[in-house]
Write a structure and sequence with these properties.
Elements lengths: L24 H26 L4 E3 L2 E8 L5 E13 L3 E5 L5 E5 L14 E9 L2 E8 L12
Antiparallel strand pairs: 1-2, 2-3, 3-4, 3-6, 4-5, 6-7
Length: about 150
């Protein structure tokens, strides 16, 4: 057996084994694809919030949006006062006078909403029916939906 000798002062250092780069081409392509998807979703949200079909009043807002490819899914939102509510529907009136009735089903998040509350409704529209996915008071935005 031979002992490994330490290099002399000023001698070239032995080459280190080549390490694999931290970012491979595959990882870079995946990161770019994810960034593009996130930017696209953000653009859709901004378009929906500032689209030409949006109407606003003093404290009231309503509008619509379309998402998806092929078969388009349509949705809408409205901010206003609850003028009527039951187990199967909620009626909301914006400050500009626009009134709409939304279907409430088992999937709708609408905890503690009562007549007279100011709410934001997010709904999907299919077959001429607007089904509310959430009916929330402004202070409840961002909270996790209740478990059923």
């Amino acid at each position: 057996m031979t002992e490994q000798q330490s290099p002399e002062w000023g001698a070239p250092q032995p080459a280190e084994p080549a390490e694999r780069p931290a970012w491979t081409v595959r990882k870079t392509v995946a990161a770019v694809a994810i960034a593009v998807a996130i930017a696209g979703a953000g653009g859709v949200a901004i378009y929906a919030a500032s689209g030409t079909n949006q109407q606003t009043g003093a404290g009231g807002m309503r509008g619509g949006f379309g998402l998806g490819t092929g078969t388009t899914t349509h949705g809408e939102f409205q901010t206003g006062e609850v003028t009527a509510i039951s187990d199967s529907s909620v009626e909301v009136k914006s400050t500009d006078g626009y009134t709409k009735t939304y279907v409430i089903d088992a999937h709708t998040v609408a905890e503690g909403v009562e007549k007279g509350d100011t709410v934001t409704v997010i709904a999907t529209t299919a077959d001429g029916r607007s089904v509310a996915s959430s009916v929330v008071e402004p202070g409840q935005r961002g909270q996790a939906p209740p478990t059923r």
